Amino acid sequence: MLTTAKRQRGSIPLYTALVICSAIFIFPMYLAIVNALSAWNTTPGLLPNGFHPENFKYATTLIDFWHFGKNSVIICGISLCTSTLTSGLVGYAFARIAAPGRNFLFMVVLSTMMVPGIVTQIPAYILFHNYGLLDTFWPWLFWGIGGNAFYIFLYRQFFSSVPKELEEAARIDGCSILRTYWNIFLPMSLPVVATVAIMTFQGSWGDFITPFMFLKTEHYPLATALGTISYTANGTKLVLQSVATAAAILLMIPVLLTFFLGQRYIVEGIVTTGVKG
Known about the structure:
Protein name: Carbohydrate ABC transporter permease
Oligomer: single chain
Main location: membrane
Pfam family, one: BPD_transp_1
Keywords: Cell membrane, Membrane, Transmembrane, Transmembrane helix, Transport
Shape: globular
Low-confidence stretches: none
Helix content: over 70%
Radius of gyration: 24 Å
Mean pLDDT: 86
Subcellular location: Cell membrane
């Protein structure tokens, strides 16, 4: 009993620190909700100034909210489908196909993770401009086909842990390399597939700078549109900050839902690749 009591007392500082850290992270979300429910012409405070849930309605009607949301769905769908499948194929090749220079090429792929993505934006902009692909969704297709170094690493670590006998049995049954990947390896890697899909969705849904550079206003996704288009009152230049905050909260809902619904797969996928790889 004494040992249990001491253990419980020893955990008090840990739980206290967790509560404090949780409050710090939750506080900005609380302020956003308070601001979204306040009146238009008031200064945001710690408590709501009135209760105006209609701000969420105005957030979807004062601008073409659903049109920009459709663009977000298109960009996320392209990125999710192409990046998830392509990264899986490349990871499978690095893990299971013996070829000269395989390890060297894998290190080259991993080294690209050290290059900040913003560094390649201007060369990519010039390239797509020369081919007339600006203000289209084609760049996201080509980026997805190119795969992602981190996702390739996750797939490769998982596929390396699969027993060789399973692959040999598939070859004896007449399966080609692609059929072995599609029918055996891919179904086994569902936790990794879910992890990659969720991370791809969250990265694409909230991306602001890339669509801002490569697209015009008509093709902006929701995150870029909310960052560049102001909610203004009729006939005035008064920015409706409460309505804009309500729109930002609506933007966050899909990301929060995918995280809470898929966090088990994220943890399982990363732990699996880390332990078995």
